[in-house]
Amino acid sequence: MRKLTVQFLLLMMSLLLLTGCGGTESKQEGGTVPTTAQVQKQKITDLVGREVEFSVPAQRVVAIGPGALRLVTYIEGAAMMVGIEEVEKKSNPGRSYMMAYPDLKKLPSIGQGGPDTAPNEESLVSVKPDVIFVCTLVDKEKADQLQAKTGIPVVALSYGDLATFGDNLYRSLNLIGSIIGREKRAQEVVAYLKQNENDLGERTKGLAEGDRAKVYVGAVSMKGARGIESTQAQYPPFKYIGAKNVADETGKNGTVMIDKEKLISWNPDFLFLDAGGYALVTEDYQKNPAFYQSLQAMKNDRVYNLIPFNNYNPNIDTAFADAYYAGKVIFPEQFKDIDPIKKSDEIYQFLLGKPLYAEMAKDLGGFKKLELGK
User: Fold this and answer.
1) Tens-place pLDDT, residues 57-91
2) Which of 38, 210, 287, 335 is the most buried (most CB within 10 A)?
3) Residue 341 covered by a domain
4) What is the Cα 235 distance to its own chain's centre?
């Protein structure tokens, strides 16, 4: 009897020790998989002012609307995606995050997608996500409706002011990080973007107004390719480097269609063309070469290619790459230490884990001087 009692006590002690030492996480090949003990309820306020409660960290994620998926990939959340919009699966040169993560196209479709479509509740529910990230597609009321219909937490994101991105973009990135358990990564991404923004601005900060050449970017895509008349006021690459964008005189923010005659009166010193509409410009040149040859930038052989960054909301990585290239062209002394190609690959590598410049150049011409009519 005494022997049985001792054995019983030893057994009980072993069970108590096993219970007390039970970890809050389990190991599986490829990383740490959170257990129920790790999951916590958390409330956040999203970018349209909604308070949303859900369990964190989220393990299964979807992102809908222009640019939502891009932001999740910046925070290393591509492996958590359980479905993507049909529009993301289509061939789309220059969409950097899809170039970096092509396997995302193999995921189930969660609706058509696109800036003018409504979310597909049935498709979203079918992939059983823990959270739906959404950008641009819905306002506060529609986000509440989507959450009510699906029973899945909906978190609205924002790119902020498209001229400089800024605080709303940074808030969105940090929000994604806290929800998917990548807080440190989100902080690193925000710090990196701010570092590049500050670097660009500081390089030309002391220049007098008279030392800043007039610049114009044409053929900027706007729901499709556009010709020389399509430009952008408060164009981020120019704004970051303090260039004198003649289109800012319109007082607008974003894409603007101008009269071609206005370009003659502006007569910029440097002419940049978005590769997305370059074919339309060359076609127009063949019809009216005198117009282009009258421009100062053409006479001085100062026409340059830029990689399009407006693609289902801005590819922030490419916008910064364009800024460094434009800086090198317009302000060579201030950017003499910069190799635009190496800098571009550094940006793509940091944000998306892959140097993409060569692929961008293959599809969209890359950074180079242009010779219209040749």
Assistant:
1) 999 999 999 999 999 999 999 999 999 999 999 98
2) 335
3) yes
4) 16
- SS3 per-residue string spanning 340-372: HHHHHHHHHHHHHCCCCHHHHHHHHCCCCECCC
Contacts of 84 (CB under 8 A, 6+ apart): 62, 63, 69, 104, 105, 107, 109, 110, 113
In a domain? residue 269: yes
Span 220-268, pLDDT tens digits: 988 788 999 999 999 999 999 999 999 999 999 889 999 999 999 999 9
Residues 231 and 301 in one domain: yes
69, 100 Cβ separation under 8 angstroms? no
The answer to whether residues 212 and 360 belong to one domain is yes
Q: Which residues contact 116 (CB under 8 A, 6 or more apart)?
A: none
Question: Could you give the CA distance from residue 277 to residue 286 in angstroms, rounded to a whole number?
Answer: 15
Q: In the chain, at which residue ranges do the beta strands (DSSP E only) sit?
A: 25-28, 31-34, 40-45, 51-56, 61-64, 131-135, 154-157, 214-218, 230-233, 244-245, 254-257, 270-274, 303-306
Determine the structural domain holding residue 112 and report its residue range. 38-178
Q: Are 307 and 322 in contact (CB under 8 A)?
A: yes
DSSP-assigned states of every residue in 222-234: SSS---TTEEEET
- Residue 190: exposed, middle, or buried by beta-carbon count in 10 A (0-12, 13-18, 19+)? buried
Contacts of 322 by beta carbon, 8 Å cutoff, 6+ apart: 237, 306, 307, 309
Residue 5 lies in a domain: no
Tokens at 261, concatenated: 């005659």
- As for how many domains the chain has, the answer is 2
3 within some domain? no
**pLDDT per position as a tens digit, 143-177:** 999 999 999 999 999 998 766 688 999 999 999 99
Taking the alpha carbons at both ends of the chain, their separation in whole angstroms is 102
- 8 has pLDDT over 70: no
- Tell me the residue type at 88: E
pTM score, whole prediction: 0.88
Q: Taking the CA atoms of the chain, what radius of gyration do you get in angstroms?
A: 25
- Residue 164 sits in the same domain as residue 233: no
Residues 215 and 142 in one domain: no
Q: In the prediction, which pLDDT does 34 show?
A: 42
